[in-house]
Amino acid sequence: MRGALSIHSGNRHAVAAAVVVLSFLSTGPAAAAKRIALVVGNSAYQNIARLDNPRNDATLMADTLSSLGFTLVGGRAQLDLDKMALDNAVQNFGRQIQGADVALFYYAGHGVQVTGSNYLVPVSANPTREADVDFQMVDVNLVLRQMQGSGTRLNMVILDACRNNPFGARGLRSSEGGLAQMRAPEGTLISYATQPGSVALDGRDGHSPYTRALATTVKQPGLDIFQTFNQVGLTVKRETGGAQQPWVSSSPIDGTFYFVAPAAAASLPKVAIAPPPEARVADTLRPDPDYVPIKDAALLRELSERLYEHNFDPELPDGKTGMKLAIAKFQEKSNLKPSGEATQGVLMRLRKMNDLKPWGSIVYGPDNDKWGISWNHTSRRAAVDDARKNCGASKCAMELSFFGDRCGAFAISAESWSLVERETIQRAKQAALDECGKTGKSCRVIGAVCADGSGR
Predict the structure, then answer these.
(1) What is the dihedral of CA 281, 284, 285, 288, to 10 degrees?
(2) Which residues make beta-bridge pairs with 188?
(3) Domain segments of the chain: what residues?
(4) Residues 131, 134, 139, CA angle at the centre, nearest 5°?
(5) Coil, strand, or helix at residue 152?
(6) Where are the alpha helices (DSSP H) in 340-424?
(7) Most CB atoms within 10 A, among 177, 278, 428, 442?
(8) Which pLDDT tens digit goes with each residue over 391-402?
């Protein structure tokens, strides 16, 4: 995610301004519910287009479910599985859920429907005809059959796999877009990232819109399983402007199940069954964090710092305007309405984002011609502080910071200067010379580096 500071230029003589906690409430004592989850994320496909987000999505869901008391098959998210590894994982899942209260299967990656059946695509799959499918992919019905007869009270299948058919141009013509709707067996809920036959969005911030919403919603106390997936659907629909609408298929489920028990129930001894009191509609509503303003000074400071560390600059000369602009740019990148308002939803999303690194920075003080450069730092703040060591008492207010595989260059002449970021060191240098040379004066590059230290 890049901020707006990819180009700076100016005149040298003017300074620029559980899924189920299974709280079956009753009057008798109860043992802790046994909850088992298999979480799979396939990204590194060998023969078709790789996917950016499933590894991240699966890791996020595994961490979330583990925090809610689920035991994970394999101890963590199972990533980039070939056919044999995926078969073994599903079979181990079937063994471990025997006698469990809740079984949950989560999959992120390529998925296709062929003649009405849904298949999960291992990273090694390379079919060229329809007859290859059963040998190279895993039918979702195999997962459902592992769950049947296991004695579980609730089974869940969550499929964030509703993408375009990756084999359409390679002979597998019978496959359609998205996944087909499946009949949910007794005591089972199946959740799709989008409607049957439709294609889901992959997301732009390292997570799909569906998994990001799911991982957040399951942590809210007091939402039963149906309220949870309804809230997930509403969140995804809103954040994608209606382009994606998650779908749920369910058979009747006996009892009331929670990811996180209601606060009142959580303070009681854990117990095992009985219908809870009927809730009033008003009690089931929760404030939308995207519209809850942040007023606490400490949280506002945290928000400002996290925006800065993701290259959205709240620290402009006009502090209030800078903060609003930074939030608006982040919201726009996150497919949200760019309101510029500091809300709990903005901070929540920033907290969930991975740290960016390595960082490089070039700083310049047009008033005294001081400048500095740094690279290979673990944070933007550290990179800027290191670069400014060469500025002495000068603040070197003009800053260009970049991260990952990006590169920056600083060009200057007797009349002008420019700071430019590009994807390679050669392009950064050329762009800096072009920008600086717009005044008609000959410019030269006096500093250039990539964030990882290469190109010096």
Answers:
(1) -160
(2) 155
(3) 7-16+356-450, 35-260, 289-352
(4) 140
(5) coil
(6) 344-352, 380-387
(7) 428
(8) 887 778 899 999
Confidence of residue 332 (pLDDT cuts 50, 70, 90): confident
What's residue 87's pLDDT? 96
What is the per-residue pLDDT for 56? 95
pLDDT of residue 421: 94
Total length of the chain: 456
Q: What does the alpha-carbon distance between residue 19 and residue 308 come to, in Å, rounded to a whole number? A: 34
Q: What's the predicted TM-score (pTM) here?
A: 0.54
Share of the chain above pLDDT 90, in %: 45
Helix (H, G, I), strand (E, B) or coil at 96: helix
- CA–CA separation, 20 vs 297, rounded Å? 35
Contact 42, 81 (CB under 8 A): yes
For the CA atoms of 300, 304, 307, 308, the dihedral, rounded to the nearest 10 degrees, stands at -170
* DSSP SS3 for 297: helix
For the record, the structure tokens of 351 come out as 């907290």
For residues 156 and 102, is the Cβ–Cβ distance under 8 A? yes
Q: What's the one-letter identity of residue 21?
A: V
Instruction: Report how far residue 314's alpha carbon sits from residue 165's, in angstroms, rounded to the nearest whole number.
Output: 42
**Cα–Cα distance for residue pair 103/324, rounded to 1 Å:** 44
pLDDT surpassing 80 at residue 317: no
Q: How far apart are CA 331 and CA 352, in angstroms?
A: 14
- The b-or-e profile of 172-195 (16+ CB within 10 A means b, else e) is bebbbebbbbbebeebbbbbbbbb
Q: Encoding tokens for residue 411?
A: 């060009």
What's the CATH number of domain 35-260, 3.40.50.1460, 3.40.50.720, 3.30.70.260, 3.30.250.10? 3.40.50.1460
The label of the residue with tokens 């997570």 reads: 207
At how many degrees (to 10) do helices 83-96 and 140-147 cross?
20
Pick the CATH number of 289-352 from 3.40.390, 1.20.120, 1.10.3680, 1.10.101: 1.10.101
239-261: buried (b, 16+ CB within 10 Å) or exposed (e) per residue?
bbeeebbbbbeeeebebbbbbbb
Helix (H) or strand (E) holding 360: strand 359-365
DSSP state at residue 193 = S
pLDDT tens digits along 276-316: 444 433 333 445 677 788 888 888 888 888 898 888 888 76
State the CB neighbour count (10 A cutoff) for residue 316. Answer: 14
Average pLDDT over residues 148-169: 81
pLDDT of residue 9: 65
